[in-house]
Amino acid sequence: MRVLLYGSELSAATAAAALAWVGHQVQWLPHADTPWSALSQVDWLRSEPQLMAHLEQGLADGTLQVIEQLKEARAPDVIWLALSPAQRSSASSLVEDPLLVDQQGIVLINNSTFPVGETERLHALIGMQHTSVALPDTLEEGRAWDSFTRPTRRLLGCDDATGEQVTRELLRAFNRRSEVFQCMPRRAAELTKLAINGMLATRISYMNEIAGLADTLGVDVEHVRQGMGADSRIGFEYLYPGCGFGGPNFSRDLMRLADVQLQSGRYSALLEQVMDINEQKKETLFRKLWAHFAGELAGKTVAIWGAAFKPGTARIDHAPVLTLLEALWAQGIKVQLHDPAAVPALHALVGKRDDLRTYTHDPYQACEGADVLMLVTEWKTYWNPDWHRLGSLLNAKLVLDGRNIYDPEFVASCGLMYRGIGRRADPKTL
């Protein structure tokens, strides 16, 4: 099929590469705010596994063409929109262009996270001689290629047989099982995507509240987590407490869902609480640091492992580390931070600072001369450190684990003090 793909989001790049890979003729029009010349150099795209290699292969094979203006486009069978929530007006301008409106039988696929009902509105603009479907973006950053090309399910909002048939055929190469598509009306699919992320965020925030209570009561939250997860009505997914979630999609989907509530005349105290709890949890490690030193933080140096909002990405959008850094710097604390991918993004945001030293290769460099180690992002390189080496590097021999990836008793057996999220252990004394 001839596909015109519009947008500069990760979802746009992934769809462009994947659709061209399986033989579709793809013309990709990046958004003017981030043209291909800039997009091709950003760290979050280049660090996404397999993606750049497939983009470059598509360009070399000729199945993928990057265009700069709509007038360069051929008549498409499918228009694929993969824009940010702030680019609704751009979507409107594109579908209203006479080049597209005057054609017949185009299928408009809305892969953007727009307000509920937006697919229908765009359909009215492009003309009822065309068809539209909502195909919400469900990519997992850090494994975008795998989640697009090997999906376990796709939400498909469609109100006519043509849209469903064309979308199934367009994506047939990635999973031939018909049940992969969960078909429903367009508005239902748009709301379902937001509702899923709202539910996941609620589980995380609830578990973080339980972890805080466990800390107060002197209970190891891991016992509570295991007991809750073993209940078949609950399960273990998204049941790990931590120091807050971030990311460009998860956070904004929550805000989008709250906006939908308000626009419909409903106020959601639950969603507001979920977002408030998450913002508070981003300060958890700082509060533990404050408690340990009884507020005497002047002159301290903190080592941080991890800045990205999740492992496998170079992005720091809404990342917990940003809130943590502001709290540390407000107390005059020097920070030595290691991250294998997100350091350029961090410097782009906060600039060069005398109270920030960064490292991208050896994580132990960040710990040299530091008083405390804070684990913020659970990159695999951090999971099995040399504890005896850390004990020799950290002046206060304190580990603050923001993701509960370490065994408290084992860390304590190596002579370090451990504080996690609802977990703790002290070195044994004879």
TrEMBL record:
NAD(+) binds at residues 113, 141. SMART domains: UDPG_MGDP_dh_C. Substrate binds at residues 193, 238-242, 246, 310. Its EC number is 1.1.1.22. Residues 303-408 form the UDP-glucose/GDP-mannose dehydrogenase C-terminal domain. Keywords: NAD, Oxidoreductase. It catalyses: UDP-alpha-D-glucose + 2 NAD(+) + H2O = UDP-alpha-D-glucuronate + 2 NADH + 3 H(+). It holds the Pfam family UDPG_MGDP_dh_C. Belongs to the UDP-glucose/GDP-mannose dehydrogenase family. This is UDP-glucose 6-dehydrogenase. It comes from Vreelandella sedimenti. The lineage of its organism: Bacteria, Pseudomonadati, Pseudomonadota, Gammaproteobacteria, Oceanospirillales.
